[in-house]
């Protein structure tokens, strides 16, 4: 019985370190997705504002 506990203990140790590294990768992936979301949102906001300013300038010319 003592032998099996030592075997299981050695098998569990790499699994624990694997789980820890997965948490790190998950955090990195989350950060990349968040940065991509912010970049896309800023490009979208710039486009909307540019279109609005362009439409306002064109409206002034019409009147």
Largest sheet: none
Q: What percentage of residues falls in helices of 4 or more residues?
A: over 70%
Radius of gyration: 27 Å
Total of DSSP H or I helical runs spanning 4+ residues:
1
Distance between the termini: 92 Å
Structural class: mainly alpha
| Annotation, overall tally of beta strands | 0
Q: Give the amount of beta strand, in percent.
A: under 5%
What are the low-pLDDT stretches, counting only 5+ consecutive residues below 50? Answer: none
Mean of residue pLDDT values:
81
Structure description:
97% of the residues lie in helices and 0% in strands. The radius of gyration is 27 Å and the shape is rod-shaped. It has 63 residues and is mainly α.
What topology emerges from the helices and strands here?
Elements: H1 2-62
Task: Give a short overview.
It is built from 1 helix and no strands. It is an all-alpha fold and 63 residues long. The N and C termini lie far apart (92 Å).
Provide key terms for this protein.
0% strand, 1 helix, mainly alpha
């Amino acid at each position: 019985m003592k032998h099996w506990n030592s075997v299981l203990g050695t098998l569990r140790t790499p699994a624990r370190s694997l789980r820890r590294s997965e948490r790190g990768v998950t955090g990195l992936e989350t950060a990349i997705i968040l940065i991509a979301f912010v970049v896309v949102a800023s490009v979208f906001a710039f486009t909307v504002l540019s279109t609005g300013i362009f439409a306002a300038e064109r409206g002034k010319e019409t009147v």
